[in-house]
Please model this.
Amino acid sequence: MFQKLKQRWKVNGLNLLLIITTFALGGSLCGYAGRKILLLTSLEKGFLWFILYIILVTLLWPLCVLLISIPLGQFTFFRSYIIKIWKKMSPPAGQAGGRKEHLTHIAVFASGAGSNAEQIINYFATSQNVKIALVVCNKPGAGVLQIAAKAGIPSILIEKERFFKGDGYLPELKQLNIDFIVLAGFLWKMPASLLNAYPKKIVNIHPALLPKYGGKGMYGQFVHQAVIASGDKESGITIHFVDEVYDNGEIIFQTKCEVAEHDTPETLAQKIHVLEHASYPAVIASVIQKQNRS
Ligand code: GAR
Model:
C-alpha cells in the first residue's frame, strides 16, 4: 500500500512519512478545534451538536492540515492536494454556479516511448477543461500504448494505407469528439483529411530549434546527431502548428539549451526531453485556452 502511495504521489519514503504525519496531526487538530468552538456555544451534546461538529471539522480540515504542513515541509504537496479535492467537489462546468466552459477533447498521436505523452496525460489528469480522450499510435508494442492503458485512456493502432489514402481515422476521432490533436513523437505526416478537419488545431513538438534540423527523416537521435556534428553551441525545442510540410507550421514556442563539448546524441536527447516535459503540456494548455477564448 505504501509503495502504491509513493508512486501515486511521486514522493520518497521520508516524504510519505511526513505526509501521513501531517494528515494525522491535521485531523486531530481540526477535531480538537471543532470541539473547542462548540464549547463556546451553549449547545448540549446531541444530534445538532454532532451535525455542527461534522460541518466544522470539514471546514477546518484544510486549514489545519495546511498549518501543520508548513513546519513539516509539506505545504506545496498539501496545497495542490487540497486544490485537487476542491476542483473535484466544485460543480462541473455549466451546472449550478459553474461557468460554462468548453471541454476540449485531445487525441495524442505518438509512436515511441511516450515520455511526452505521459507528461501531457498527467498534466491534464485533473483538468476540468481538457480531457485526453485518445492515444493514437502507429507502432505495435510502442511504450505509449502501455502508458495509455495505465491511465485508462483508449488507444488505437493505425495502419498506413487507411491513414494516408483513406479517411485518416477521422470517424474514430469524431466519434470521441476530438477537437485538438497533439503530436508527441509521431513521425508520420498528417494527411489532408486531418489537416482540413483540424485547421490550427494540430500541434507538434520538434527536438531542435526549427527551421534548423527539420524536415523528412529529421527525428529523435538523427536530429541530435546532426546538431552535434554541426558544432552548434545550442539546441532546443520547437512547438509549432502542423501544416502539410514537415516541421514547417507557425512556431508557437521555442526554448534553448547548451550543447556542451562532451555532449553525445544521448546526453543531448536527455537535455531536450527535460525541456520538452517542462514546456509541452503548459504550452498546449495555453494554446487551447487562447483558442477557446477567441
Ligand atoms: C521527442 O523528443 C520529440 O521531440 C521527438 O520524438 C521524441 C519522442 O519522445 N519528435 C520528433 O523528432 C518529431 N520530428 P517520447 O516518445 O519519449 O515522447
Q: What stands out?
A: Residues 2-88 form one domain. Residues 76 and 218 are 40 Å apart (CA to CA). The longest strand covers residues 130-137.
